[in-house]
Amino acid sequence: MIEFYNVDLNIDKKTILRDVSFRVLKGEFVYLTGASGAGKSTVLRLLYMDLFPDRGTVIIERYSSAKIKDKEIPYLRRQLGVVFQDFKLLPDRNIFDNTAFALRVIGMPGKEIKKRVLRVLTDVNLSHKRNHYPEELSGGEQQRAAIARAVVNNPIAVLADEPTGNLDSDNSMEIMEILQKINQNGTAVLMATHDNELISAFPHRIIEIKEGRVGR
Ligand SMILES: Nc1ncnc2c1ncn2[C@@H]1O[C@H](COP(=O)(O)OP(=O)(O)OP(=O)(O)O)[C@@H](O)[C@H]1O
Ligand SMILES: [Mg+2]
């Protein structure tokens, strides 16, 4: 389970979040909405513990922002798959190696890596591009590769920060279908977006941030 519990966050003496509480249950799909600058990306950074609250607690499964040690943060992040608006693939590795990266870091046997990577690349309809480099792929394809990379380690949740922000509407729809499928297989999805059309096409619970607080 993912939980924000009475979180306050200030950056450079400016209050970004005040007393924010919410929960995302196992296997839920939730949108994080709010105007530009409302704090959506900041909420996601608090969840993968790139930032820590000034007050309150962020909980991801058995990890708490109040107690986690620096050396545990990589283990926490292995429970989460993160997807960004600008893809953030490694430019000097092909799509297979981009996807395999996190599995190699944890020392998984090569044979198992190959099996898993080919499976997730097939899930995002990209196995035919596995030997290509990111710059040889379209935006939609790069985002599909980024999603494959995010889910290859079977995270409990995918955190997606405007994953369709750089894509046209057809590619956005395809990304949404893939996120739906991932969610139907039991992975929670927390997606920051301000695309109301997408939200209407794929309705799920909405957490809205407004003036630093969570409304409904
Ligand atoms: N590193 C930083 N230093 C100073 N201020 C920051 C920093 N990161 C974020 N902020 C401020 O925190 C607030 C929330 O930013 P955040 O990026 O979370 O918004 P957002 O909802 O993701 O916006 P967008 O829709 O434009 O991506 C903004 O006022 C922003 O200026
Ligand atoms: Mg943002």
What would you call the shape? globular
Terminal CA distance reads 20 Å
Find the structural class using helix and strand composition: alpha/beta
Following the backbone from N to C, one meets helices and strands in this order, namely EEEHEEHEHHHEHEHEE
Question: If helices are DSSP runs of H or I spanning 4 or more residues, what is the number of helices?
Answer: 7
Main beta-sheet annotation: 6 strands, mixed
How do the strands of the widest beta sheet line up side by side?
6-7-8-3-9-10
- Ligand identities: adenosine-5'-triphosphate, magnesium ion
Mean pLDDT comes to 96
The tally of beta strands, per DSSP, is 10
Give me the Rg, rounded: 17 Å
Helix content: 25-40%
The poorly predicted ranges are none
Note the beta-strand portion: 25-35%
Write the layout of secondary structure elements.
Blueprint: E1 2-11, E2 14-24, E3 29-33, H1 40-47, E4 55-60, E5 63-64, H2 73-78, E6 80-83, H3 95-105, H4 110-123, H5 139-151, E7 157-161, H6 169-184, E8 188-192, H7 196-201, E9 205-210, E10 213-214
Parallel strand pairs: 3-8, 3-9, 6-7, 7-8
Antiparallel strand pairs: 1-2, 1-4, 4-5, 9-10
Helix pairs in contact: 3-4, 3-5, 4-5, 5-6
The chain binds adenosine-5'-triphosphate and magnesium ion.
